[in-house]
Fold:
Amino acid sequence: MDIQLVYIGADQSFSSALAESAEFLKISFQLIPPDQNADFSPQSDMIILIDQLSSGDSPWLSSLNSASPLPIYIHAVSDWHDQPHQHDIPPLFHDTLTKNIPQELLVRKIEFYLNYLQTLSQPGLNEKIHELNKKNHRLNTQLANLQEKITQIGSDLHIQEKVIEKINQISHLSKQINCLDIKKISSVCIEQIPKLIAANYASLYAYDHHKGVLQLLQHNHPYTIARVVILANHPKSPMTLAVEQKRLLLIKDFSQWEQEEETSVKRLFARNYNTTSCIIAPLLSGDKILGVLNLADKIDSPAFDRSSDLPPVQLLCEIIGSAMSNIELYEEVQKRAQTDSMTNLLNHRSFYDALDREIHRAQRYNSNLSLLMMDLDSLKIINDSHGHRAGDAVLMHVADKILACIRDTDIAARYGGDEFAIILPNTSLSDAMHVAERMADMISHEPVDIDGHQLTASVSVGLGQYRSEQSIEDFMNETDGAMFDAKTAGKNRVHVCGA
Structure:
């Protein structure tokens, strides 16, 4: 049986695809333009494909059902997967095809129609037609299932790509955060983390748990925000609650949150924000609060989302909290390495570094630099008479009085067992003399109570003034010599170099 493939339509691209399919299947192909179909006579050995734009109400359509056993309706859709339902196929048509069906599937479809027509002339026609219909149904079902799987796979891949992208971003940010530089950590918090969840504004505060104060480290707000927040003055504010309860707050709508919390908060800077949604994230290391990260104004939505925005923020805040804790620990270790454990003054080595630094500064700016060398009188007698615990108490007493008499820019150190040294930058000899005499007077006139015993202490002080081009050793030796002169002259006095 010689079967012919006929297309009634004007779509040249689809016509070419049909011609290619016919050539592959070794059957003839005929293209009939829509304006010539009046002269067309359907035959039983034809597979007739009729374009939806050509069907209309042509009078010969009524003869299709009897003259041609297999008329096919051709329609155009944007996606070839969008097959119409069975009840959408026009009357008289047995099946439908989309124009943008892949070539391989088009060939398979036409081959199916070809087998169908060839089967009509064979014995057991009805049974074979029934079997073909079942196969066709199974094929359509398989195609629908396949399309559903493809769609689901595409959706899953898209979600996985987003998840992988966020994981990579978090991994990259965590490497930047994991450092001992608070400025670098602050920059990541303000410049990078907001991009991860599409937040417009961010601010980072450090928390001083001794004072109950949040101190602003960095922010990207276009307007002024509070630089210091005393939590006791704002007992119901979101930041106070986040710190006290040690939990992250996601506020979708501020007014609704106030109703739920049964509170009212003065939002002095509310006009600066486009939305009323924000995230307040405490930065914890273990059970200790190190600070607070605030994120505000969702860019692509009226509110932050608990399922997509919260997890990355929570993870990064844990990393930030650990990094800030490491900085505190590092600074504490550095401080202990540089200070005397009993008096908390600089130790011998740190004193030399500080003096060398101040000498270079005095040389550069041609400024005054004074140095006090101080020896505690009769420490051995105190230790022998009252025990070393009493001696330690007297040493701490001397350190306290030294700190009470100097400025923040001055530098005090425990130079040796019973010796102290004080660097006085930008200080004239007369001003340094005043400081030294005040120290000696406070130390000797305020007794130390040891288990009910009132112990008095005194110091001998040497005072030196740095001279240009003088070496650090010469400067130290001259001042130490002045201290020795004070001690040999009767103790509890101040002696100036060269006097």
